[in-house]
Each structure stands twice: as structure tokens, then as C-alpha cells.
Amino acid sequence: MSTIHWVEARPRCARWHSESGLPLPRRVVVADDLMPAAVAHRLACEGTALLWRGDFHNARQLLRAMDRRVGRSAPEAPGRPAEAFHAHRRYRAHRARVLGKLLVLLEEDHTLALRRAPDVRRACDEAYGPPSGGPVAVALTELLGVIGAREWREKGVAVPALGARIHPHYGVFAPTRSEYVDLVARAPLPGGGTVRTAFDLGTGTGVLAAVLARRGVGQVVATDVGARARECARANVRRLGLAGTVRVTGPGLYPDGRADLVVCNPPWLPARPASDLDLGVYDAGGAMLQGFLSGLAGRLEPGGEGWLVLSDLAERLGLRDRGAL
């Protein structure tokens, strides 16, 4: 168990948690409303974490001020798209490390005991699971993401192809763009439109599995490597009344058996993800894409089809040659 230590009238400690894998802070100082943004930025750049004990809204203002200072050091984009992409990722990683040094403390019941702080208990319970005892320190940037995810989960995302809303969970890629969903909703089904079984590989929120079920596919088996995604997909399937048609499983890419249709919408870019949210965009080494392609022939029924729903962004950035597919 990773633990941070600091002095606040007396020596104190708390568990350290970072969804994005930020390293354990080795030096922690207490910060409050009196700390200037320039000092906070300098300390964070030097590797010192700042445990915030002041007003919640002032913490957000300080974070924005630190972000502006980080932005001043953003490099000019190189000329070649691939170089610009990698430079931007390096800058984003640096930004995440610096801003991730501003910490807040969640009490043992996930209460945020700061002035003017919102009630974050439900959001934290949904993101992290039930409280496991003792206080836990997290980056303010992460907590703001947890709060935002709770709002998305409550509100949902309208999906015109479904005529319904999909409710993404924390750490699961949200279908905020409809182009790829519309493609799956409109493409002619194999077998003259009669599909007994379909696989949806990397289902995420379950949106494509739901679209296939609504199109009349007899049985849809949706897989995902992530436990959060599987829980999210099951919840959406139940909410849409499709639990009798869609079965969610994992963590393997392919389920057992064969299918008339195999659909895969892999992450767009062959790069290493930094967090669960990145799994919807970055596919390290193109592993999921390769897994889909190498396993497809052995999982299709005679006359079956495989649908690869893939952005060409990697080709446009020079990260993958079109001929590689």
C-alpha cells in the first residue's frame, strides 16, 4: 500500500491513489488560500506535492492559475504530424505531472472536508468502490474528473441511432460522437439481414451491442478487457431492456464460439494509454487491432462478416501505414 506523509501540527499519513498512475509524492507540504500560484507552480515543478487545506473553489482557481503557467512552456509544434503528436503527448504528460501535485484528502467515508466543497461521496463510491477505511489522498485533477463522470453518468449521452441515452461510468469512454455508431446502425447486415449471433469486441459502454440488438440480431455477446466497462455495459443493457439479447463478458477479446458478425471499434491510435479513459483512444502497439484481425477468420460462421470500425487518424498522423492493415 502506498502512503503519503506530511506534518500538520503532528505527523500524519494517508493512502495514495492515482487512476493515471502518477508516482507516489515523496515530499508533501500543506497549502491553503494564502499560497501564491507562482510558488505552487514552482514547488510542483520541483516535485513537491501540495495538500490543499483551504477553500475548495480557491483550490480550483489555483489549479487554473498553475495550468496557465504550465501552458507558457508548451513547445511549438514540429512540422511533421507524427512529431507534433508525440511532442503534444509529452507536453500533456508534463502538464498532468505538475497539476497532479495539487492534492486533496478524502476522509474515510469519501467526504471532502474543505470549505464550500461539494458532496463527492457518491461520485467517489462509483469511481473507486466502497470506502476501504482511512483517509485517501488524490490529485484534485482526478477528483474533478470523478465529479464530472458522476454528472455524465446521471445525465447520459443521447444516441440518435438508439433513440435513447447511454450512461457512461467513470473510466469508460463515452460515445459523444455519433459517426461510428451511425455506421454500425446503417451498414447492411450479412445473411440478407438475418444475424443469429454477433460479437461486439471492446464494447465499452455497450452502445454498439445495443445498436445491434435493436437491429434484430438474435444474440449479441459483448466483451471488454476492463471491469468498469463490463459493469457499465451491463447497466446500460439492463436500462435499455436488452438484457435478454446482449450478454457481456470478458476479459478476453473474443468469447467462445463463432458468430455471423464480429464488430470491433478499436482505439484509434497505436500509443500507450496513461489511464482507463485513454483505453478508448490509445491501443499500445496496436494490440487490440492485431488481436481482432488475427482471430477473425477462426471465429466467423460460413458467410459471416467482420466489421472493423476504425478512424484513419493514425494514418493521417503518420503513426501507421494504411498498407499495414
Automatic annotation (TrEMBL):
GO molecular function: nucleic acid binding; protein-glutamine N-methyltransferase activity
Positions of the Methyltransferase small domain: 194-310
Keyword Transcription regulation: no
Keyword annotations from UniProtKB, A to Z: Methyltransferase, Transferase
CDD domains, sorted: AdoMet_MTases
InterPro entries: DNA_methylase_N6_adenine_CS, N5-glutamine_MTase, SAM-dependent_MTases_sf, Small_mtfrase_dom
GO BP terms: methylation
Keyword Coiled coil: no
Pfam family name, one: MTS
Name this protein carries in UniProt: Class I SAM-dependent methyltransferase
